[in-house]
Amino acid sequence: MPAWDAEQYLKFERERTQPSRDLVGRIDVPHARRVVDLGCGPGNSTAVLRARWPSAETIGVDSSAEMLDRARASDPSVTWVQADLRSWTPTGPVDVVLSNAVLQWVPDHASVMPRIVRWLAPEGAFAAQMPANVDAPYQLAADRVRRRAPWSELGSSALPSFGVESRGFYYDLLAPLTSRIELWDTEYVHVMPGPEAIVAWTAGTGLRPWLATLPGDDARQRFLREYAIELEDAYPRQHDGRRLFPFLRRFLLAYR
Ligand SMILES: C[S@@+](CC[C@H](N)C(=O)[O-])C[C@H]1O[C@@H](n2cnc3c(N)ncnc32)[C@H](O)[C@@H]1O
């Protein structure tokens, strides 16, 4: 099972790209010469940057070869770079760094974020969005199933942590390094056809590293079926049979 599967991730392309549209729409940088999409994935958030600053040099950075294959096919005019964002450095000042739905995978924001902010040109912006759903019903339901037999034996107990800090943490971290900071949370309410769609959503992102520790596809499919049953009650049925799936996202926008 590869670390990322662009096809599965893009099953919810509209929902997954909306936060980068909302975030890029708020960036107050009228002219940009160089923009970077850090953790560009399949290129969906990069396309939002391209549309906003079409004449800027655009660089997409991601550690996943699978995601970058898809990104390259989407836009050959972008410079696509396979690298870990913790060690990659741009060759010159950057006007906008976007990191949409990425930094929750990266530990130690206290050192990662100041490093990014130092790349910025004067009046440049660092714009990040991270899901903030530690206690959401879909996470708690996954935990309940993982703790039961046979999953507690079959899957790894060393789960990756999803490090999203408080708004106050980001303010204290970045205020000394920047001239202006905006912080906000938005809860998107996705209308899903049923629990299986919520399973497909999480299997395309947060649950992936744990699913990869299960021994084979059969076990993964059995786990996902059990998980779907657990979600039945967590997301009640609406009159038309659909489910409302609230998803909280934390936004941060800091200007040099
Ligand atoms: C959920 S996707 C986000 C894709 C896209 N930015 C979007 O807005 O939909 C997260 C991406 O972050 C990348 N990623 C995670 N950790 C990374 C790291 N340390 N360095 C570079 N990319 C990383 C993954 O490979 C994946 O493509």
Low-confidence stretches: none
Q: What sort of overall outline do the alpha carbons produce when their principal axes are compared?
A: globular
**What distance separates the N and C termini?**
40 Å
Q: What is the highest CATH level, the class?
A: Alpha Beta
The CATH topology is what? Rossmann fold
What strand order characterises the main sheet?
A: 3-2-1-4-5-7-6
How large, in whole angstroms, is the Cα Rg?
19 Å
pLDDT averaged residue by residue: 94
Quickly give the structural class. Answer: alpha/beta
Q: Which bin fits the share of residues in helices?
A: 25-40%
- The CATH homologous superfamily corresponds to Vaccinia Virus protein VP39
Number of strands: 7
Bound molecules: S-adenosylmethionine
Q: What is the succession of H and E elements? A: HHEHEHEEHEHHHEHHHE
CATH architecture: 3-Layer(aba) Sandwich
Major beta sheet summary: 7 strands, mixed
> What share of residues are in beta strands?
15-25%
The tally of domains stands at 1
Total helical elements: 11
